[in-house]
Amino acid sequence: MSLIEQAAKRLEQLRKAGVEIPQANVESEPPPSVQAAAATATAPATSAARPPAVPDPTEAAVSRRVEIDLNALATTGLISPDAPRTQLADQFRVIKRPLISNAMGKGASPIKRGNLIMVTSAISGEGKSFTAINLAMSIAMELDNTVMLVDADVPKPSLLKMLGLPAARGLLDVLTDPSVDFSQVLLRTNVDKLSILPSGTQHPRATELLASEAMVALLDEMASRYPDRIIIFDSPPLLMTTESRALAGHMGQVVVVVRAESTVRSDVKHALAAIESCPVKLMLLNQARAAVQDGYGYGYGYGYGYGYGYGSDSA
What was the pLDDT predicted at 23? Predict the structure, then answer.
């Protein structure tokens, strides 16, 4: 029942109860409650005649916040900022240091887009997504840097699922729809310095989109908008798709994850040859056991830029 109907019903009840209500006053000047009801009732008609309101762009561009279950994260073997110190966390503290140094221009020489870091592998099953998440989590624990984790594995996105988050719009939506702003699809998380850019809606021409001028412009914006931000791209395997090769040409640093005692050396060499134009290439040896009692990992290189090898205890 509307406010006007309620007010009319109340007036009728007062009349039946013997309360005198001057008829002229009711018709010419309704009580305040009736006036308010009438104003409310006529408001939609007035606004309908006006042109539709234009959304405030500052409100439309606000990133959505999501909650990562940090306890569940730790049980899956991933680094959690709230978890006690672990061997895996210590390993990634070593792994991230040269990457951060290069990203912030503190390496041997300046690197263009040094804060754009692609994590990839030669073939699937090497542990690249595991590495990308742990690297991002480790960098998020830094005092002086923020980190964005981008799911650029558009043929087979997995980051949101691994983090226990629902599917969402993301990178491909920004590239295909000019009305979608980058900040609208960026997900803020309960890890203070970590944000996530999902892969977005699947598209049959994903390779062309990643190699497009729109992507180059987006990468430039990402690299320059926040000088303290490091951006980690989880990309497809180099020898199984062409998307990662299109993306690698725009990266400042590439981390190639190699699974110990599994990946053949020729696959690694072919993968590195595919990203030869990238300024810095680093190799990370996953699931590598050293001869020392409590040590994991050992280093090696194939002569392609820098060579680092570290182990982690999960694919």
Answer: 53
In this predicted structure, the answer to whether residue 209 has a pLDDT above a threshold of 50 is: yes
Cα dist from 219 to 114, 115, 189, whole Å: 12, 10, 21
Cβ neighbours for 188, distance < 8 A, ≥ 6 positions apart: 63, 64, 65, 66, 195
Cβ(34)–Cβ(12) under 8 Å? no
Judge contact between 132 and 235, C-beta under 8 A.
Answer: no
Round to whole Å and give the CA distance between 235 and 249. 13
Query: 195-209, 253-267, 282-296: which has the minimum mean pLDDT?
Result: 282-296
Helix (H, G, I), strand (E, B) or coil at 202: coil
Q: Which tokens is 198 given?
A: 């999902």
Q: Is the Cβ–Cβ distance between 258 and 286 less than 8 Å?
A: yes
List pLDDT tens digits, range 255-272: 999 998 888 999 999 999
Residue 61: how many CB atoms within 10 A of its CB?
Answer: 13
pLDDT at 61 over 70: no
In sequence order, what are the residues at sequence separation of 6 or more whose Cβ sits closer than 8 angstroms to the Cβ of residue 199?
151, 152, 153, 154, 157, 159, 170, 171, 172
What is the spatial distance between Cα 60 and Cα 65, in angstroms, rounded to a whole number? 14
The fraction of the chain above a pLDDT of 70, given in percent, is 72
Helix (H) or strand (E) holding 151: strand 146-151
The contacts of residue 118 (CB under 8 Å, 6+ apart) are 152, 233, 235, 244, 247, 248, 251, 253, 254, 255, 278
137 to 64, 149, 204, 300: CA distances (angstroms): 19, 9, 31, 25
The answer to whether 235 touches 97, Cβ cutoff 8 Å, is no
Q: How confident is the model at residue 141 (pLDDT cuts 50, 70, 90)?
A: very high
